[in-house]
Amino acid sequence: MTAAAKLIDGKRVSLLWAGPERAGCIAAVHAKLFNPPWDEANVRGLLDHPAATSFVATLGSPNDVVGFIIGQIAADESEILTIGVATECQRHGVGKMLVEGLIRAVQRAEVRRMFLDVATDNAAALHLYSKMGFTPSGVRKGYYARPGAAAVDAVTMARTLTI
Ligand SMILES: CC(C)(COP(=O)(O)OP(=O)(O)OC[C@H]1O[C@@H](n2cnc3c(N)ncnc32)[C@H](O)[C@@H]1OP(=O)(O)O)[C@@H](O)C(=O)NCCC(=O)NCCS
């Protein structure tokens, strides 16, 4: 799937379905954004899951992977397992594009509600999800382990999807 013509530094951003063959690229971007990172085998396992619905954002041609979103469907619900945009491409609408792409895809599978967990100290993600219509639905105490620091709570957010 190719989505809208968004440009960063004159290069086109595209949204492509991501299967297990994208695990290496996604793990490489993930490692620069998250601590601890997920290794390639873990990412491949998620992408390979029959319920996975995942995309990468690519920039230019040949395609550099600059963002990813991994979602999973269970009956009429869906969850965002992870999302990330390479630091140098943030604040250009790529995160929004990834979430919109996942929502469009799961709506076609008749998903009615989407969930995610986000760390309470992750202002960028909290803003992104709020802007996209997700609202808080609960808190998981100490959900995110932080190497060398205290664990951080997660806010569970949800959004109802219309079909
Ligand atoms: C969260 C993340 C995916 C956002 O990606 P992005 O491409 O920068 O997001 P967008 O450019 O689409 O931003 C959409 C909206 O989100 C909000 N937002 C994004 N980054 C923000 C920031 N640093 N501070 C405040 N608001 C922010 C804004 O409302 C923004 O809209 P605006 O630019 O019109 O104001 C990105 O910051 C990231 O990869 N962070 C590290 C990984 C991570 O934390 N993932 C989420 C785990 S739950």
Rg, alpha carbons: 15 Å
Which cofactors or ions or other ligands sit in this model?
Answer: coenzyme A
Rounded average pLDDT: 94
Order of helices and strands: EEHHEEEHEHEE
Estimate the global geometry from the Cα principal axes.
Answer: globular
CATH class: Alpha Beta
**CATH level-two architecture:** 3-Layer(aba) Sandwich
What distance separates the N and C termini? 20 Å
User: Can you tell me the residue ranges where pLDDT is under 50 for at least 5 consecutive residues?
Assistant: none
> Into how many domains do the coordinates divide?
1
Helix fraction by DSSP (H/I, runs of at least 4): 25-40%
Helix-and-strand structural type = alpha+beta
Number of helices: 4
Mind telling me the CATH superfamily name?
Gcn5-related N-acetyltransferase (GNAT)
Strand ordering within the main sheet = 1-2-3-4-5-6-8-7
Question: In the CATH scheme, what's the topology name?
Answer: Aminopeptidase
Total strands: the figure is 8
Tell me about the biggest sheet? 8 strands, mixed
The fraction of residues in strands falls at 35-45%
Question: Would you write up a description of this structure?
Answer:
This protein is α+β, with helices and mostly antiparallel strands and 163 residues long. It has one domain: Gcn5-related N-acetyltransferase (GNAT) (Aminopeptidase), CATH 3.40.630.30. It is built from four helices and eight strands; from the N terminus they run E-E-H-H-E-E-E-H-E-H-E-E. The protein has helices spanning 23-33, 40-48, 94-108, 123-131; strands at residues 6-8, 11-17, 52-59, 64-74, 77-85, 113-119, 135-146, 149-160. It has an eight-stranded mixed sheet with strand order 1-2-3-4-5-6-8-7. Helix 1 packs across helix 2 (40-48). The chain is globular. The model has no long low-confidence stretch (mean pLDDT 94). Bound molecules: coenzyme A. Residues 33, 83-85, 90-96, 118, 122-125, 127-128, 131 line the site of coenzyme A.
